[in-house]
Amino acid sequence: MEISSMFHSIMALSSPLFSSSSSPFSFPTSSRKRPNIHKFKLQSSTSAATKITTDSIPRTEAGEFQNVLTDYVSPNSSNQFPVSRNDRQSAILQIQESSDLGSALPRLGETLKVQDMNVILRYFGKLSRRQELSQVFDWMQQNQKINVASYSSYVKLMGKSLSSVEALVMYKSIKDRSTKINVSVCNALLSCLVKNGKSESSLKLFTQMKRDGLVPDAVTYSTLLAGCAKVKDGYSKALELVQELMSNGLLMDSVTYGSLLSVCASHKECNEAEKYFQKMKAEGQSPNVYHYSSLLNAYSVDGNYEKAEALIEEMRSAGLVLNKVVYTTLLKVYVKGGFFEKSKELLKELEAFGYAKDEMPFCLLMDGLVKSGLLLEAKSVFDEMMGKHVKTDGYSYSIMISAFCRSGLLEDAKKLASEFEEKYDKYDVVILNAMLSAYCRAGEIENVMSMMKKMDDSAISPDWNTFNILIRYFCKEKLYLLAYRTMQDMHRKGHQPEEGLCSSLIYYLGKTDAHSEAFSVYNMLRYSKRTISKSLHEKILHILIAGRLLKDAYVVVKDNAGFISRPAIKRFAVNFMRSGNVNLINDVMKAMHSSGHRIDQVASLGKQRSQVQPEKTRPIAKQCDVLSVSNRRNTNIQNGFIQVSEF
């Protein structure tokens, strides 16, 4: 269920890649005319952007295109005759200036080589014209004018505009094995996944790439290490990558160390960060500002300001210039340690250097004050920031709105939310969640609807917090079916709901006779790969019995008999014998017997039912006669059938 569906339900209820130097490679030209070869008049560029031609060859850099020659050798070239260099340059310029690539590419592209198409590809990429870039790449794929550099260029130039799904589809479409395991192509794809927040997927794909024959380089490992900063157990995975890197005979460079320090800081491994920082210096590598700021970030975990200040002095002694990132990270250290006076003094320094033109430094201080219970001081910092007309993206508002809500100051929260709506027309999921929470707590359904509509109109995807806010609100307003549909959508989008929230919703759905919906919520928890409360099994059993969903109740008993009380199981068995599926009665008795329950009363009920439906239940009646003497005999059930043996 999208946000729009919820809304209606409520109503119802990078750097340049090219050098400007001339190409060191020579191209064959034809001095005499050949049939079927079109001569294109060289046209001067009317575009403000500099045209890229075959005279512009990419620099060879680490992680870029390692073999420039691949750009100029095409095993799939469809050209039957060589075309002069001037003709190719003219065709390139016409395609770059064309307003209709759909016709220009078939008309002119056939005369060009792969390296020429790569030049066009990079031209559109440099201008950030993603639509044309994608169109050219698709044509190159369809017409087999493509090579290693084409794939790696396309992925890098598309940046975050290329989704992880699109990148994976492109990669799987590569038929040539050598291209598929080329380190430049693989590095570009792995980097795309990491930048799109799919670090877990990048690690899994890396394993598959190695099986296929990839020989990773230092860039590969640095890329994957950067992703480890954002995944669960990222530090242990980072150590595995470092060990693998070294076992492959590769050395850790400054980029690798930088990524590793970032991982340590993200996973609160302060001591390990210090160890790698010292190891890096011992190997003769000079730390740069990025390395120092990563270690500073590690110190912010426990607010170790003494080590942080010593590190700042070391940076100054090394002749490094302290930039905005360093000062902001130091502020984070002071705030985390609760040194608010030092924080305020440093904030003034940031303002003096021109590093506090946006809200982030103020937000760090406000957030620390709020978490320390100093709400009035936080509001004072917020008012000071507003008075100085500091640029805000709404994060400062979200901090204060959430703080007011937690303190029960709903009127203040609503006032601030309304102020943001009036002043700004820019939203993200964080500020919308804060405003949504304020209106939900105040019980203002019209404003809740308005926030949901804004989220839908702005194409902002709800996150885990959004769903939790809405489900709790719908339960509070007794809109239990709407809360259920919201939880369904939450589950479909891969968010795992809290057990406490699920348990409450199960209870309310059961009270309103929505028995099957309650069982659906129970199954969301059951299959969420987490241990759930034992009492929840009995709770859902009573709801299913009340709703006469006895087949589902049997599944609960069969799988969780050890966690359900004897009275509850007896109640289930009695109800099942009276009105359950006849074909499952034997299975029910087996489940009861396996759990150690006495079944004489159940047997009696089963025998009574056999008199009502004799043709279907005659075998069961015979078994019930056997069970009636269970106190004098040892009853075993094997393979779903009752067997009796004398003591």
TrEMBL record:
Origin: domain of life: Eukaryota
This protein's name: Pentatricopeptide repeat-containing protein At1g10910, chloroplastic isoform X2
Organism: Nicotiana tabacum
